[in-house]
Structures are given as structure tokens and as C-alpha cells.
Amino acid sequence: MSALDAQTLFQEYNGSENAGFATIHAPVHHTPGGTPYLQVPGVVMLARPQTNPTGLAGFLDGFDTSLGFSQYLDDPTTLPESSQLCKIAGQTCYMSFGPKRTMNENASRYFENLKSSGHGSVFEHANFSLLLYGVSRSLTHELIRHRAGMGFSQLSQRYVSGRMLRFVERPEYRDDAQLHTQFEQRVDRAAEEYAQLTKRLLEMQKEGSTILSAEARTDLRKKVQQAARSVLPNETEAPIVVTGNVRSWRHVIEMRADAHAETEIRELAVRIFLCLHLADPILFGDYEIEQLADGTHAVTTTYRKV
Predict the structure, then answer these.
(1) One of 221, 256, 266, 271 is an active-site residue; which one?
(2) Predicted model pTM
(3) How far is 137 from 168, CA to CA, in rounded Å?
(4) Who has the most CB within 10 Å: 16, 102, 120, 266?
């Protein structure tokens, strides 16, 4: 990283790492009325690739010994498992397992060549799963537009009760006393109105309202919550688990961590990048972080649309 070191920013965001799994947690705040809210996104890496190179032995031993393919497993340099997986996939294309292959110590150069030539399919083999929280409903509506190569599982406001309601304060409101106070008052009102609606809808349900009737207990609760959620603002938190391959995550970073991206989603995308970069500094090593005039950060790369 030339403009700003990724590890430095990761630490600045209070990131932590355990056995290769990166986390950037977001603190929870409360309004004077007790309504919980978050000001920054949280990112938790839930899953990353686990690769089994030794399983190639039987495959490699099946070729003429003069090719030297069996030496492939003797490479002394250890790679991040996601890089190892993508490298095996790429080298399978040309059966580059012999002595003249690109060794692991030169993996960065190998992937630079792939990126510069636009051979992005190799990057689709490695998947990472992240829990994203402290993100608003308006943010996730943008995020789920990245459908190719991604899987999403998001909090359902029809099934989750108001006891778990939290909200997200926009970056523009945090340092302005008037906007911050208005935000806290607004989410207090939203939470209170949701509670009042829920109470009245439950009363109507018990009184035999046809439109709120259902046979299963779960459906009864859903009928109430799907009606009450209509008053919730875009500022309502919408935790989401996202699984994506490296190529797709790179696209998210390039689009959403860009200086011209919407501020809230850019804050998230930068944190996503930091966690992925920690997990695999080879596949995500071509990015640079810059600090913008407003104090926020953006991420760029020469190899867009790999």
C-alpha cells in the first residue's frame, strides 16, 4: 500500500484477528430514551477457503515422471489458502506443474499477470463469507445489487421482533449537534411508534380481526410485524451475511470503496477490503488506500474489472 498502509488503518478501526479471521467491530450507542444505534459498520469474517494441495498427489503421479509434476507439492513457500486455491486452478489450465512453473514465492507476480490481462475467472474459486452489521436498510438495498457471484442472507423484519430493533446514524449527522439530536429523536419516535402499532395490532388480532388471523403461531406474529414495520425508516439496521468469490468482492470494493461512492456504503466497503486484505494480501495486494479531504477513506486499484 503506498498512500496509506492497510494494517495501520485496520488498527485505527480497532480491527482484530484470530487465526486468520479478521473482525472490525462496531460499538453500540443509546439515545437518551434508550434506543440502540450504531454509527459505523461492523465486519466479521465467518468463513474463508480451506485448501488441500496434498490431495493432488494421485492426480500428479499419474503423468510421465519425466515431467516432474510430483515436485509441485514440495514448494517450500506457504501461501494464503485462497491464493493457493486460485493458483492451483490457474496452473491447471496450462498443466503448469513442472519445474518451470511459477513457484509460490513468485505468486504475487503470477497474480499480477492475471490481473493485468483480465483473466478474472481464476479468482472465482475462492469464497469469503462476512457478517455485516451496523448497516442501514438503505445501504443493503444498494449492496444486494451485486448479485453475480454473491449470496445474501438478511435480517427479516417480518420475523424479528421489535426487541431487536437498532438503527444506524449516517456519517453526515455524527459531528453536527443539531442533526445528531434530530437523529436520536427520530429513532426514538420510530421505535415508540413501532411498539404502539405492534400493541394495537396484537389487540386487533385477539379481537378476531380477519386480516390478522392465521393458524400457526409464527404466522400470527409475522402478520403483526409485517404491518408494524411500515413505520421503520431507512435508518433501521439490517444485518446481513454475504458470501462472495474474490472476483465479486473485488468488484464490490472497486465500486463501493471508490471516492465517488455513497458515503455510508464506502465506509463499509473500506472495512470489507481491510478484512479481505488481512486474509489474503496477495489477491487483494494491488489496492491503495487514500484519505479524502473530508477525513474518510477510499480504495483504488490499477486492475479494475479483473
Answers:
(1) 256
(2) 0.93
(3) 9
(4) 266
